[in-house]
Design brief:
single chain; 599 residues; alpha+beta; three-stranded parallel β-sheet
């Protein structure tokens, strides 16, 4: 799984959860970011896999996420449902951009105030979780990566496999683990599965890359003989740059790049101190070790990269029926590709532009995006962002061309396909748009924008059963986005299922509390079902969001007067409506109604 969203875990791979389940353990997971949704295959082996970010997800972030507090709440609820012995995976996402810790942690200070604050927040929530675990529980806390925080020109992670991203905490505690010991030897996250299996008294499968970290070697035994492999294929998949791979023995780091490099980790500053020359024997040893390790996995130093397709047989059949084969996410690695170390300015610019686009500042970003696309014509994020800004600028035909180019770079990604469908829709080419939405859903059955828009096109064309089928399939695939719930509610209402529609509208409002549309639909559905008290409460909630809607004040006034018999409450609502009304005839009508109501 070399890139989020493009690759998925193959079903034939045995996961740690499957290993524990086979040994009689119950297994549950709570994940806190959409990149770990079950459709990427990581749910294998878990009886319960909670990837529903629900109302706890953090809005307006680049990746939908669940806060640490909400994750711990979900984990504690799941814990109560697990039988002993159990294997529980709790995933916290907070120490990622955007860094938005609670104020009490943001104010603690530190060299990276907000990042440090998010780490402190997760630490607090880990404390809540640990306090609830049975005392005999074996616990491992591990990070998947760190953040570069500006080192080597990278602010976050994913581009460069240097120490800022590569070094992570690994803490193990519980029965069979010596207390208070810090082992300075090189350890790898790949060592965690055999370590946990050994501590649980279970046999590890053969041919694992890792080895148990316990028991610790005796004083007379040789130490620190491990080598650690790391890679970053994001440059290749996202930008068509060279994928960086590294091998380290703890003292030295060999980097496989268009121009290979060696770093002395023993020096002050480590990699930041710069490359080391004049060590041909060290380079040859580590390069040979890297080549051998990769050969054992069936790869070369500069491989032909497989697409790692997440598509099952049904999805492939759907794509074939639509005239697509898929697979361009793969390709050949060669030294002619750009070196990511020389492209950090482009990655940093895209990082900054992405934030600007999220904040609605496309106009100021478009020219820079077009410059990046000219310099780097296969840059997947730049093509998508430039296309989005062209569409926002009222140039859907130009946007469509860029989305199609982005899809050619990685035609296993649903994102540019859904974007292309939106551009086609803006051009009035509805049938083509529907076809592209279907293609996006074949690639990612839980793609919310595609499901909602395709369902709307079908519904508007009179195919309400087809619309509901699309939405139900997205729901079954794990999509819990408010837009899909809202569209399903509309489709249900049009087929006469008002109760089902009301449930969808209410859930959409819960998940997207700042959006007035699902609330308004819920209020109308409640009234149509004769639930007048609930309808009035929903209108009151809605008007707290949009107090300038005179029509809603009139609806609330009518319910209070005619259905609830509350003239005082009705008078207040009609008075608010009158203050907003500009039509002379409607003003006279409201004045006449108010004249009949007691003060």
């Amino acid at each position: 799984m070399r890139d989020n969203g493009t690759f998925a875990l193959a079903g034939e791979v045995t996961t740690l959860a499957e290993r524990f389940r086979a040994a009689g353990y119950d297994a549950g997971a709570v994940v806190s970011a959409v990149v770990l949704a079950r459709r990427h295959g990581l749910d294998q082996g878990f009886r319960i896999y909670d990837d529903d970010l629900g109302a706890g997800y953090t809005a307006a972030t680049q990746v939908s996420e669940r806060s640490a507090e909400a994750a711990t709440d979900a984990a504690l609820a799941l814990l109560a449902r697990l039988e002993r012995p159990f294997f529980l995976w709790v995933h916290y996402f907070d120490p990622h951009e955007e860094y938005r810790p609670p104020t009490r942690f943001a104010d603690l200070g530190g060299p990276s105030r907000l990042y440090d604050g998010e780490i402190a927040f997760v630490d607090e929530q880990l404390g809540r979780l640990l306090a609830a675990l049975p005392p005999e529980t074996l616990v491992a806390a591990v990070g998947d990566h760190g953040e570069m925080l500006g080192e080597h020109g990278e602010r976050t992670h994913g581009l460069l496999p240097f120490a800022g991203a590569r070094r992570v905490p690994l803490i193990v505690a519980g029965p069979g683990v010596p207390r208070g010991v810090v082992d300075r030897c090189l350890a790898r996250t790949v060592d965690l599965p055999p370590t946990l299996l050994a501590l649980a008294g279970l046999a590890a499968p053969p041919n694992l890359d890792g080895e148990p970290l316990l028991p610790l070697p005796a004083a007379h035994e040789p130490r620190c003989a491990r080598t650690s492999y790391s890679e970053s294929f994001l440059p290749f998949v996202a930008y068509r740059w060279y994928p960086l791979r590294a091998l380290s023995d703890g003292d030295w780091l060999y980097l496989q790049a268009p121009t290979p490099a060696l770093y002395d980790l023993r020096r002050a500053g480590g990699e930041a101190a710069g490359e080391v020359t004049g060590k041909p024997a060290v380079v040859a040893r580590l390069r040979s070790g890297l080549a051998s390790l990769l050969a054992a996995a069936g790869e070369e130093l500069e491989p032909e990269v497989g697409a790692g397709s997440p598509l099952d047989a049904e999805q492939r059949a759907q794509l074939l029926a639509l005239g697509y084969v898929g697979g361009a996410a793969g390709g050949t690695v060669s030294a002619a590709l750009p070196d990511p170390r020389a492209m950090t300015d482009v990655a940093e610019a895209l990082h900054r532009i992405h934030r600007a686009v999220q904040e609605g500042r496309c106009r100021e970003s478009l020219r820079e995006l077009q410059t990046i696309v000219r310099r780097d014509p296969r840059n997947f994020p730049a093509l998508n962002l430039a296309g989005f800004c062209l569409k926002e600028a009222g140039r859907p035909a130009d946007a469509l061309a860029l989305f199609q180019r982005a899809s050619a770079v990685n035609d296993l990604s649903a994102l540019p396909v859904a974007n292309a469908a939106g551009a086609l829709l803006a051009l009035g080419r509805r049938q083509e748009a529907a076809r592209e939405y279907r293609r996006a859903l074949a690639l990612d059955p839980a793609q919310a924008e595609s499901a909602a828009n395709l369902a709307r096109l079908l519904r508007e064309g009179g195919d309400r059963p087809g619309a509901l089928a699309v939405l139900e399939a997205a729901w079954e695939a794990g999509c819990r986005e408010p837009s899909v719930l809202l569209e399903r509610g509309v489709a249900r209402a049009e087929t006469g299922d008002l109760r089902g529609a009301l449930a969808d509208f209410r859930e959409a409002a819960r998940r997207d509390p700042a959006n007035p549309v699902p609330l308004e639909n819920a209020a109308r559905a409640s009234f149509q079902l004769g639930q007048v008290r609930a309808a009035a409460q929903l209108y009151e909630q809605l008007l707290r969001l949009v107090p300038s809607r005179g029509d809603l004040w009139k609806s609330l006034g009518a319910i209070r007067l005619e259905s609830l018999g509350e003239p005082a409450g009705a008078r207040e609502a009609f008075r608010r409506a009158l203050a907003l009304e500009s039509d002379p005839r409607e003003r006279r009508r409201l004045e006449e109604i108010l004249a009949t109501l007691p003060e």
